Amino acid sequence: MKSQKVFSLTTPIYYANAKPHIGHAYTTVVADVMARWQKQKGRETFLLTGTDEHGAKIAQKAEELGKTPQELVNEISGQFKQLWNELDIDYQSFIRTTDKKHIVVVQKVLEKLYEQGLIYKGEYKGLYCFGCEQFKKETELVDGKCPDHGVAPEFVREESYMLRLSDKQDELLQKIESDELRIRPKRFRREILSFLEKEKLEDLSISRKNVEWGIPLPFDKSQTVYVWFDAFLSYLTGLGWQGGNLEGEVSNLWPLDLNLIGKDILRVHATIWPIMLMHLGLELPKQIFVHGHILSEGKKMSKSVGNVIAIDEMLKEFGAEGTCYLLLSAGTIGEDIDLTMERMMEKYNADLANGLGNLLSRVVTLARNFQFPISEVELEKGEIIFTEDFEGLMDSLQFDRALKKIWRIVQDSNKLIEETKPWELAKNDRGKFEKVMRELALHLHKTAELLKTFLPETARRIKKQLKTGERGILFEKIKTN
Ligand SMILES: [Zn+2]
Predict the structure, then answer these.
(1) Segment 471-477 long-range contacts (CB within 8 Å, at least 24 positions apart)
(2) Whether residue 455 sits in one domain with residue 384
(3) pLDDT number for residue 3
(4) How far does residue 128's CA lie from ligand 1's centre (Å)?
(5) Average pLDDT by stretches of 10, the chain with 481 residues
(6) Å from CA of 165 to ligand 1 middle
(7) Count of alpha carbons within 13 Å of 11, Cβ hemisphere only?
(8) Same structural domain for residues 283 and 420?
(9) DSSP output for 397-438
(10) CA separation, residue 177 to residues 112, 182, 192, 239, 245 (Å)
(11) Which domain-ending residue is among 254, 270, 291?
Protein backbone atom coordinates (compact mmCIF):
# COMPACT_ATOMS: atom_id res chain seq x y z
CA MET A 1 0.00 0.00 0.00
CA LYS A 2 1.39 3.34 -0.99
CA SER A 3 1.17 5.87 1.79
CA GLN A 4 0.38 9.51 1.12
CA LYS A 5 3.14 11.52 -0.50
CA VAL A 6 5.13 13.37 2.12
CA PHE A 7 6.01 17.01 1.37
CA SER A 8 9.75 16.59 0.85
CA LEU A 9 12.14 19.47 0.54
CA THR A 10 15.84 20.07 0.61
CA THR A 11 18.36 22.80 1.14
CA PRO A 12 21.45 22.67 -1.04
CA ILE A 13 23.91 20.12 0.31
CA TYR A 14 26.44 22.66 1.51
CA TYR A 15 30.07 22.53 0.50
CA ALA A 16 32.13 21.74 3.58
CA ASN A 17 35.27 23.77 2.97
CA ALA A 18 34.58 26.52 5.48
CA LYS A 19 32.32 27.13 8.44
CA PRO A 20 28.70 28.02 7.71
CA HIS A 21 27.85 31.64 7.02
CA ILE A 22 24.74 33.76 6.94
CA GLY A 23 23.80 32.62 3.42
CA HIS A 24 23.61 29.00 4.54
CA ALA A 25 21.52 30.06 7.51
CA TYR A 26 19.16 32.01 5.28
CA THR A 27 18.39 29.11 2.92
CA THR A 28 17.96 26.69 5.78
CA VAL A 29 15.65 29.01 7.72
CA VAL A 30 13.54 29.43 4.57
CA ALA A 31 13.32 25.65 4.20
CA ASP A 32 12.46 25.17 7.85
CA VAL A 33 9.63 27.72 7.71
CA MET A 34 8.26 26.13 4.56
CA ALA A 35 8.30 22.71 6.23
CA ARG A 36 6.49 24.09 9.26
CA TRP A 37 3.92 25.76 7.02
CA GLN A 38 3.20 22.49 5.21
CA LYS A 39 2.88 20.72 8.54
CA GLN A 40 0.39 23.31 9.67
CA LYS A 41 -1.65 22.56 6.59
CA GLY A 42 -1.74 18.93 7.62
CA ARG A 43 0.99 17.47 5.43
CA GLU A 44 3.65 15.20 6.73
CA THR A 45 7.01 16.76 5.85
CA PHE A 46 10.59 15.68 5.35
CA LEU A 47 13.38 18.25 5.37
CA LEU A 48 16.76 17.19 4.06
CA THR A 49 20.02 19.03 4.50
CA GLY A 50 23.67 18.03 4.67
CA THR A 51 27.21 18.62 3.56
CA ASP A 52 29.02 18.03 0.28
CA GLU A 53 32.44 16.83 1.33
CA HIS A 54 34.57 15.82 -1.65
CA GLY A 55 36.67 17.62 -4.22
CA ALA A 56 39.97 19.35 -4.82
CA LYS A 57 39.00 22.48 -2.95
CA ILE A 58 38.47 20.56 0.29
CA ALA A 59 41.68 18.58 -0.10
CA GLN A 60 43.56 21.81 -0.69
CA LYS A 61 42.04 23.56 2.30
CA ALA A 62 42.78 20.57 4.55
CA GLU A 63 46.39 20.60 3.46
CA GLU A 64 46.70 24.29 4.22
CA LEU A 65 45.42 23.60 7.72
CA GLY A 66 47.62 20.56 8.23
CA LYS A 67 44.64 18.24 8.49
CA THR A 68 43.38 15.26 6.57
CA PRO A 69 40.37 15.99 4.37
CA GLN A 70 38.30 13.67 6.54
CA GLU A 71 39.26 15.58 9.68
CA LEU A 72 38.34 18.84 8.02
CA VAL A 73 34.91 17.73 6.81
CA ASN A 74 34.12 16.09 10.15
CA GLU A 75 34.80 19.38 11.83
CA ILE A 76 32.86 21.47 9.34
CA SER A 77 29.82 19.25 9.06
CA GLY A 78 29.76 19.36 12.87
CA GLN A 79 29.66 23.16 12.71
CA PHE A 80 26.71 23.02 10.33
CA LYS A 81 24.82 20.69 12.65
CA GLN A 82 25.62 22.90 15.60
CA LEU A 83 24.27 25.95 13.78
CA TRP A 84 21.06 24.15 12.83
CA ASN A 85 20.62 23.30 16.50
CA GLU A 86 21.10 26.90 17.51
CA LEU A 87 18.57 28.00 14.91
CA ASP A 88 16.14 25.24 15.98
CA ILE A 89 15.99 23.77 12.49
CA ASP A 90 13.80 20.68 12.45
CA TYR A 91 15.40 18.54 9.75
CA GLN A 92 14.71 14.86 9.24
CA SER A 93 17.94 13.91 7.53
CA PHE A 94 21.48 15.25 7.38
CA ILE A 95 23.37 13.56 4.59
CA ARG A 96 27.14 13.67 4.31
CA THR A 97 28.61 12.72 0.97
CA THR A 98 31.38 10.84 2.80
CA ASP A 99 28.74 8.57 4.37
CA LYS A 100 29.29 4.97 3.36
CA LYS A 101 25.66 4.50 2.31
CA HIS A 102 25.97 7.47 -0.06
CA ILE A 103 29.24 6.31 -1.62
CA VAL A 104 27.81 2.87 -2.32
CA VAL A 105 24.87 4.38 -4.21
CA VAL A 106 27.03 6.80 -6.22
CA GLN A 107 29.13 3.87 -7.42
CA LYS A 108 26.03 1.87 -8.26
CA VAL A 109 24.71 4.76 -10.35
CA LEU A 110 28.04 5.22 -12.13
CA GLU A 111 28.16 1.53 -12.98
CA LYS A 112 24.62 1.55 -14.27
CA LEU A 113 25.05 4.59 -16.49
CA TYR A 114 28.40 3.30 -17.77
CA GLU A 115 26.83 0.00 -18.76
CA GLN A 116 24.08 1.85 -20.58
CA GLY A 117 26.59 3.94 -22.48
CA LEU A 118 25.34 7.12 -20.87
CA ILE A 119 28.80 7.55 -19.42
CA TYR A 120 31.66 6.99 -21.86
CA LYS A 121 35.41 7.49 -21.99
CA GLY A 122 36.54 10.67 -23.67
CA GLU A 123 38.76 13.62 -23.16
CA TYR A 124 38.08 16.87 -21.46
CA LYS A 125 39.58 20.01 -22.82
CA GLY A 126 38.56 23.35 -21.52
CA LEU A 127 38.39 25.82 -18.72
CA TYR A 128 37.78 24.86 -15.14
CA CYS A 129 37.15 27.14 -12.16
CA PHE A 130 38.42 25.50 -8.99
CA GLY A 131 36.44 27.95 -6.90
CA CYS A 132 33.15 26.72 -8.38
CA GLU A 133 34.42 23.22 -9.09
CA GLN A 134 32.74 23.78 -12.44
CA PHE A 135 33.73 23.72 -16.07
CA LYS A 136 33.26 27.10 -17.69
CA LYS A 137 32.48 28.32 -21.13
CA GLU A 138 34.11 31.45 -22.53
CA THR A 139 30.67 33.03 -22.66
CA GLU A 140 30.17 32.61 -18.92
CA LEU A 141 33.31 34.58 -18.05
CA VAL A 142 33.52 38.26 -17.34
CA ASP A 143 36.80 39.77 -18.54
CA GLY A 144 38.16 36.25 -18.77
CA LYS A 145 37.39 35.58 -15.12
CA CYS A 146 34.79 33.56 -13.23
CA PRO A 147 32.14 36.11 -12.20
CA ASP A 148 31.65 34.40 -8.83
CA HIS A 149 35.31 34.06 -7.92
CA GLY A 150 37.07 36.80 -9.84
CA VAL A 151 39.82 34.45 -10.92
CA ALA A 152 40.68 33.19 -14.38
CA PRO A 153 39.75 29.52 -14.79
CA GLU A 154 42.55 27.11 -15.62
CA PHE A 155 42.89 25.28 -18.89
CA VAL A 156 42.49 21.57 -18.24
CA ARG A 157 43.10 18.76 -20.69
CA GLU A 158 42.89 15.18 -19.62
CA GLU A 159 41.37 11.80 -20.23
CA SER A 160 37.99 11.77 -18.62
CA TYR A 161 34.68 10.01 -18.48
CA MET A 162 31.83 11.95 -19.99
CA LEU A 163 28.12 12.05 -19.14
CA ARG A 164 25.75 12.39 -22.07
CA LEU A 165 23.82 15.63 -21.79
CA SER A 166 23.44 16.81 -25.37
CA ASP A 167 20.81 14.30 -26.47
CA LYS A 168 18.54 15.26 -23.58
CA GLN A 169 18.49 18.99 -24.26
CA ASP A 170 15.16 19.09 -26.09
CA GLU A 171 13.42 16.93 -23.52
CA LEU A 172 14.77 19.11 -20.72
CA LEU A 173 13.65 22.27 -22.46
CA GLN A 174 10.19 20.85 -22.89
CA LYS A 175 9.95 19.81 -19.23
CA ILE A 176 10.88 23.30 -18.07
CA GLU A 177 8.60 24.97 -20.58
CA SER A 178 5.65 22.83 -19.52
CA ASP A 179 6.44 23.48 -15.83
CA GLU A 180 6.79 19.76 -15.20
CA LEU A 181 9.99 21.10 -13.68
CA ARG A 182 8.89 24.42 -12.20
CA ILE A 183 11.66 26.93 -11.80
CA ARG A 184 10.70 29.89 -9.67
CA PRO A 185 10.71 32.87 -9.36
CA LYS A 186 9.84 33.16 -13.03
CA ARG A 187 12.78 35.26 -14.10
CA PHE A 188 15.09 32.35 -13.30
CA ARG A 189 12.90 30.11 -15.43
CA ARG A 190 13.25 32.59 -18.28
CA GLU A 191 16.99 32.76 -17.75
CA ILE A 192 17.37 28.98 -18.06
CA LEU A 193 14.98 28.72 -21.00
CA SER A 194 16.87 31.35 -22.93
CA PHE A 195 20.17 29.60 -22.13
CA LEU A 196 18.80 26.26 -23.35
CA GLU A 197 17.40 27.85 -26.48
CA LYS A 198 20.63 29.61 -27.39
CA GLU A 199 23.42 27.31 -26.32
CA LYS A 200 24.02 23.72 -27.08
CA LEU A 201 24.60 21.52 -24.04
CA GLU A 202 27.84 19.62 -24.28
CA ASP A 203 28.49 16.28 -22.70
CA LEU A 204 29.93 16.77 -19.25
CA SER A 205 33.24 15.55 -17.93
CA ILE A 206 32.31 13.73 -14.72
CA SER A 207 35.67 12.40 -13.60
CA ARG A 208 39.03 13.78 -12.62
CA LYS A 209 42.37 12.06 -12.75
CA ASN A 210 44.30 14.05 -10.20
CA VAL A 211 41.71 14.58 -7.53
CA GLU A 212 42.20 11.89 -4.93
CA TRP A 213 39.65 13.17 -2.44
CA GLY A 214 36.59 11.79 -4.15
CA ILE A 215 34.65 8.66 -4.93
CA PRO A 216 36.58 6.36 -7.29
CA LEU A 217 34.88 5.29 -10.48
CA PRO A 218 34.02 1.61 -10.09
CA PHE A 219 35.15 0.88 -13.67
CA ASP A 220 38.37 2.93 -13.54
CA LYS A 221 39.92 3.35 -10.13
CA SER A 222 42.46 5.86 -11.41
CA GLN A 223 39.71 8.48 -11.55
CA THR A 224 37.34 10.01 -9.03
CA VAL A 225 33.89 11.30 -9.78
CA TYR A 226 33.21 14.99 -10.33
CA VAL A 227 32.03 16.56 -7.09
CA TRP A 228 28.72 17.87 -8.47
CA PHE A 229 27.71 14.44 -9.79
CA ASP A 230 28.40 13.08 -6.33
CA ALA A 231 26.58 15.92 -4.57
CA PHE A 232 23.41 15.76 -6.66
CA LEU A 233 22.88 12.14 -5.77
CA SER A 234 22.85 13.09 -2.09
CA TYR A 235 19.40 14.58 -2.68
CA LEU A 236 18.34 10.98 -3.21
CA THR A 237 20.57 9.13 -0.77
CA GLY A 238 19.66 11.67 1.92
CA LEU A 239 16.06 10.53 1.60
CA GLY A 240 17.15 6.92 1.99
CA TRP A 241 17.44 5.86 -1.64
CA GLN A 242 19.65 2.83 -2.07
CA GLY A 243 20.08 3.04 -5.80
CA GLY A 244 17.40 0.55 -6.76
CA ASN A 245 13.77 0.84 -7.59
CA LEU A 246 12.19 3.85 -5.94
CA GLU A 247 9.18 1.79 -4.91
CA GLY A 248 9.66 0.55 -1.40
CA GLU A 249 12.71 2.72 -0.87
CA VAL A 250 11.61 6.33 -0.98
CA SER A 251 8.39 6.22 -2.96
CA ASN A 252 6.52 8.49 -0.55
CA LEU A 253 9.35 11.05 -0.51
CA TRP A 254 10.22 11.30 -4.21
CA PRO A 255 9.94 13.50 -6.19
CA LEU A 256 11.10 16.41 -4.08
CA ASP A 257 8.37 19.01 -3.70
CA LEU A 258 10.88 21.78 -3.22
CA ASN A 259 14.52 21.94 -4.22
CA LEU A 260 15.76 25.17 -2.68
CA ILE A 261 18.94 26.73 -4.07
CA GLY A 262 20.90 29.97 -4.37
CA LYS A 263 21.11 31.64 -7.75
CA ASP A 264 24.82 30.89 -8.18
CA ILE A 265 24.04 27.18 -8.52
CA LEU A 266 20.98 27.47 -10.75
CA ARG A 267 22.67 26.52 -14.01
CA VAL A 268 23.94 23.14 -12.80
CA HIS A 269 20.67 22.42 -11.00
CA ALA A 270 18.60 23.13 -14.09
CA THR A 271 20.78 21.16 -16.52
CA ILE A 272 23.03 18.42 -15.14
CA TRP A 273 20.80 17.40 -12.25
CA PRO A 274 17.53 16.89 -14.16
CA ILE A 275 19.35 15.08 -16.96
CA MET A 276 20.95 12.70 -14.46
CA LEU A 277 17.45 11.94 -13.23
CA MET A 278 16.16 11.38 -16.75
CA HIS A 279 19.01 8.94 -17.37
CA LEU A 280 18.02 7.10 -14.22
CA GLY A 281 14.37 7.06 -15.21
CA LEU A 282 13.37 9.08 -12.15
CA GLU A 283 10.88 11.91 -11.88
CA LEU A 284 12.27 15.44 -11.64
CA PRO A 285 11.79 17.62 -8.56
CA LYS A 286 8.46 19.41 -8.75
CA GLN A 287 9.98 22.77 -8.09
CA ILE A 288 13.40 24.39 -7.99
CA PHE A 289 13.11 27.64 -6.05
CA VAL A 290 15.96 30.08 -6.37
CA HIS A 291 16.94 32.73 -3.85
CA GLY A 292 19.22 35.70 -4.29
CA HIS A 293 22.40 36.74 -2.57
CA ILE A 294 22.72 38.39 0.80
CA LEU A 295 24.52 41.67 0.49
CA SER A 296 25.71 44.07 3.09
CA GLU A 297 25.81 47.80 2.40
CA GLY A 298 24.92 46.95 -1.17
CA LYS A 299 27.99 44.77 -1.70
CA LYS A 300 28.75 41.10 -1.56
CA MET A 301 30.02 40.28 1.92
CA SER A 302 33.76 39.85 2.03
CA LYS A 303 36.51 40.06 4.57
CA SER A 304 38.47 42.52 2.49
CA VAL A 305 35.51 44.91 2.24
CA GLY A 306 34.93 44.39 5.96
CA ASN A 307 31.16 44.11 5.65
CA VAL A 308 30.72 40.52 6.79
CA ILE A 309 27.86 39.88 9.18
CA ALA A 310 28.59 36.67 11.04
CA ILE A 311 25.67 34.43 11.77
CA ASP A 312 27.04 33.87 15.30
CA GLU A 313 26.87 37.60 15.86
CA MET A 314 23.23 37.69 14.75
CA LEU A 315 22.30 34.77 16.97
CA LYS A 316 23.98 36.37 19.95
CA GLU A 317 22.25 39.69 19.41
CA PHE A 318 18.78 38.57 18.29
CA GLY A 319 18.35 34.94 19.37
CA ALA A 320 17.11 32.20 17.03
CA GLU A 321 13.65 33.62 16.41
CA GLY A 322 14.83 37.21 16.12
CA THR A 323 17.38 36.08 13.54
CA CYS A 324 14.74 34.15 11.62
CA TYR A 325 12.44 37.17 11.61
CA LEU A 326 15.13 39.58 10.46
CA LEU A 327 16.36 37.32 7.66
CA LEU A 328 12.90 36.63 6.30
CA SER A 329 11.52 40.13 6.61
CA ALA A 330 14.57 41.71 4.97
CA GLY A 331 13.30 41.21 1.45
CA THR A 332 11.65 38.95 -1.06
CA ILE A 333 13.11 35.48 -1.44
CA GLY A 334 14.47 35.37 -4.97
CA GLU A 335 15.83 38.87 -4.92
CA ASP A 336 19.10 39.96 -3.36
CA ILE A 337 18.62 41.23 0.15
CA ASP A 338 20.73 43.84 1.80
CA LEU A 339 21.55 43.69 5.51
CA THR A 340 23.43 45.83 7.96
CA MET A 341 23.73 45.12 11.66
CA GLU A 342 22.57 48.63 12.47
CA ARG A 343 19.39 48.39 10.41
CA MET A 344 18.62 44.98 11.83
CA MET A 345 18.91 46.30 15.37
CA GLU A 346 16.52 49.10 14.53
CA LYS A 347 14.08 46.69 12.96
CA TYR A 348 14.35 44.31 15.87
CA ASN A 349 13.50 47.08 18.27
CA ALA A 350 10.75 48.55 16.13
CA ASP A 351 8.94 45.35 15.14
CA LEU A 352 9.71 42.84 17.86
CA ALA A 353 10.54 44.68 21.08
CA ASN A 354 8.35 47.77 20.57
CA GLY A 355 5.74 46.58 18.08
CA LEU A 356 4.77 43.10 19.17
CA GLY A 357 6.40 42.99 22.61
CA ASN A 358 4.89 46.27 23.74
CA LEU A 359 1.46 45.36 22.46
CA LEU A 360 1.38 42.16 24.45
CA SER A 361 2.69 43.78 27.59
CA ARG A 362 0.27 46.72 27.33
CA VAL A 363 -2.74 44.46 26.86
CA VAL A 364 -1.78 42.09 29.67
CA THR A 365 -1.04 45.02 31.98
CA LEU A 366 -4.34 46.75 31.20
CA ALA A 367 -6.20 43.52 31.88
CA ARG A 368 -4.41 43.14 35.18
CA ASN A 369 -4.81 46.75 36.33
CA PHE A 370 -8.48 46.98 35.44
CA GLN A 371 -9.60 43.43 36.20
CA PHE A 372 -10.40 42.35 32.67
CA PRO A 373 -10.72 38.54 32.50
CA ILE A 374 -8.30 38.13 29.60
CA SER A 375 -7.90 34.37 29.98
CA GLU A 376 -11.55 33.96 29.04
CA VAL A 377 -11.11 35.48 25.58
CA GLU A 378 -10.60 32.83 22.95
CA LEU A 379 -10.81 32.62 19.20
CA GLU A 380 -14.04 31.17 18.00
CA LYS A 381 -13.82 27.54 17.01
CA GLY A 382 -13.44 27.18 13.27
CA GLU A 383 -12.62 30.83 12.75
CA ILE A 384 -10.59 31.27 9.61
CA ILE A 385 -7.15 32.52 10.53
CA PHE A 386 -5.33 31.75 7.33
CA THR A 387 -7.02 33.69 4.58
CA GLU A 388 -6.67 32.54 1.01
CA ASP A 389 -4.45 35.49 0.42
CA PHE A 390 -2.12 34.54 3.26
CA GLU A 391 -1.98 30.94 2.11
CA GLY A 392 -1.08 32.04 -1.38
CA LEU A 393 1.82 34.08 -0.08
CA MET A 394 3.09 31.22 2.05
CA ASP A 395 2.75 28.61 -0.68
CA SER A 396 4.77 30.75 -3.07
CA LEU A 397 7.45 31.55 -0.46
CA GLN A 398 6.61 35.24 -0.28
CA PHE A 399 7.40 35.17 3.40
CA ASP A 400 8.25 38.84 3.68
CA ARG A 401 4.79 39.80 2.50
CA ALA A 402 3.12 37.28 4.80
CA LEU A 403 5.04 38.77 7.72
CA LYS A 404 3.94 42.26 6.71
CA LYS A 405 0.35 41.10 6.89
CA ILE A 406 0.88 39.84 10.42
CA TRP A 407 2.57 43.05 11.47
CA ARG A 408 -0.32 44.99 10.08
CA ILE A 409 -2.48 43.44 12.80
CA VAL A 410 0.11 44.40 15.41
CA GLN A 411 0.26 47.99 14.17
CA ASP A 412 -3.51 48.31 14.01
CA SER A 413 -3.79 47.03 17.56
CA ASN A 414 -1.24 49.46 18.90
CA LYS A 415 -3.10 52.21 17.11
CA LEU A 416 -6.37 51.09 18.64
CA ILE A 417 -4.84 51.44 22.11
CA GLU A 418 -3.59 54.92 21.39
CA GLU A 419 -6.89 56.04 19.93
CA THR A 420 -9.25 54.58 22.51
CA LYS A 421 -7.07 55.00 25.62
CA PRO A 422 -8.49 51.94 27.42
CA TRP A 423 -7.07 53.14 30.79
CA GLU A 424 -9.50 56.07 30.60
CA LEU A 425 -12.36 53.97 29.25
CA ALA A 426 -11.93 51.61 32.19
CA LYS A 427 -13.03 54.41 34.45
CA ASN A 428 -15.65 56.10 32.28
CA ASP A 429 -17.17 53.50 30.00
CA ARG A 430 -16.76 49.95 31.24
CA GLY A 431 -18.78 48.47 28.36
CA LYS A 432 -16.62 50.05 25.71
CA PHE A 433 -13.46 49.20 27.68
CA GLU A 434 -14.37 45.52 27.65
CA LYS A 435 -15.18 45.62 23.98
CA VAL A 436 -11.81 47.14 23.12
CA MET A 437 -9.96 44.73 25.39
CA ARG A 438 -11.69 41.76 23.83
CA GLU A 439 -10.72 42.98 20.39
CA LEU A 440 -7.11 43.47 21.40
CA ALA A 441 -6.91 40.03 22.97
CA LEU A 442 -8.42 38.47 19.85
CA HIS A 443 -5.89 40.26 17.68
CA LEU A 444 -3.09 38.87 19.80
CA HIS A 445 -4.50 35.36 19.57
CA LYS A 446 -4.71 35.72 15.85
CA THR A 447 -1.18 37.08 15.63
CA ALA A 448 0.09 34.14 17.66
CA GLU A 449 -1.70 31.67 15.35
CA LEU A 450 -0.23 33.28 12.26
CA LEU A 451 3.22 33.57 13.79
CA LYS A 452 3.38 29.87 14.67
CA THR A 453 4.88 29.13 11.28
CA PHE A 454 7.66 31.67 11.64
CA LEU A 455 8.32 32.05 15.36
CA PRO A 456 6.78 29.07 17.16
CA GLU A 457 8.34 29.83 20.53
CA THR A 458 7.20 33.45 20.45
CA ALA A 459 3.70 32.33 19.50
CA ARG A 460 3.65 29.92 22.43
CA ARG A 461 4.74 32.65 24.83
CA ILE A 462 2.08 35.06 23.59
CA LYS A 463 -0.60 32.43 24.12
CA LYS A 464 0.71 31.59 27.55
CA GLN A 465 0.64 35.20 28.70
CA LEU A 466 -2.89 35.62 27.38
CA LYS A 467 -3.95 32.45 29.16
CA THR A 468 -2.37 33.21 32.52
CA GLY A 469 -2.49 36.99 32.48
CA GLU A 470 1.14 36.98 33.59
CA ARG A 471 3.48 39.58 32.23
CA GLY A 472 6.82 38.74 30.69
CA ILE A 473 9.19 40.38 28.25
CA LEU A 474 8.82 38.91 24.78
CA PHE A 475 11.83 40.62 23.19
CA GLU A 476 14.35 42.55 25.19
CA LYS A 477 15.04 45.92 23.63
CA ILE A 478 18.57 46.31 22.25
CA LYS A 479 20.56 49.37 23.21
CA THR A 480 21.83 51.17 20.15
CA ASN A 481 24.12 54.15 19.96
ZN1 LIG B 1 34.16 30.24 -9.97
Answers:
(1) 471/361, 471/364, 471/365, 471/368, 473/357, 473/361, 474/352, 474/353, 474/356, 474/357, 474/360, 474/361, 475/322, 475/348, 475/352, 475/353, 475/356, 475/357, 476/353, 477/349, 477/353, 477/354, 477/357
(2) yes
(3) 65
(4) 8
(5) 83 97 98 98 97 95 97 98 98 98 97 97 89 85 90 91 97 98 98 96 92 96 95 97 82 96 96 97 97 94 89 97 98 97 97 97 97 94 86 98 98 98 97 98 97 98 96 92 68
(6) 21
(7) 31
(8) no
(9) T-HHHHHHHHHHHHHHHHHHHHHH-HHHHHHH-HHHHHHHHH
(10) 29, 8, 10, 28, 28
(11) 291
Same-domain status, 226 and 369: no
Q: For residue 58, how far is its CA from the centre of ligand 1 (angstroms)? A: 15
Contact 77, 96 (CB under 8 A): yes
Domain stops at, among 256, 275, 291: 291
Residue 438 domain-assigned?
A: yes
User: Could you give the count of Cα atoms lying within 13 Å of 42 in the half-sphere of its Cβ?
Assistant: 1
Cβ atoms of 37 and 453 closer than 8 Å: yes
Q: How many domains does the chain have?
A: 2
pTM reported for the whole predicted model: 0.94
Which residue range forms the structural domain that includes residue 419?
Answer: 340-468
Q: Which residues have a beta carbon within 5 Å of ligand 1, which is an ion?
A: 129, 131-132, 146, 148-149
What single-letter DSSP state applies at residue 376?
G
415 catalytic residue (yes or no) = no
Tell me whether residue 146 is one of the annotated catalytic residues.
yes
281 and 346 share one domain: no
Q: What is the CATH number of the domain that holds 429?
A: 1.10.730.10
Q: Is the residue at 418 inside a domain? A: yes
How far, in Å, is the centroid of ligand 1 from the Cα of 171? 28
> Among 121, 125, 149, 186, which one carries the catalytic annotation?
149
**Residue 13 CB neighbours (<10 A):** 25
Quickly count: other Cβ atoms within 10 Å of residue 307's Cβ: 17
Residue 319 lies in a domain: no
Query: Cα(148) to centroid of ligand 1, in Å?
Result: 5
Tell me, yes or no, whether 96 lies in a domain: yes
Query: Choosing from 136, 146, 269, 347, which is the catalytic residue?
Result: 146
Does residue 21 have an active-site annotation?
Answer: yes
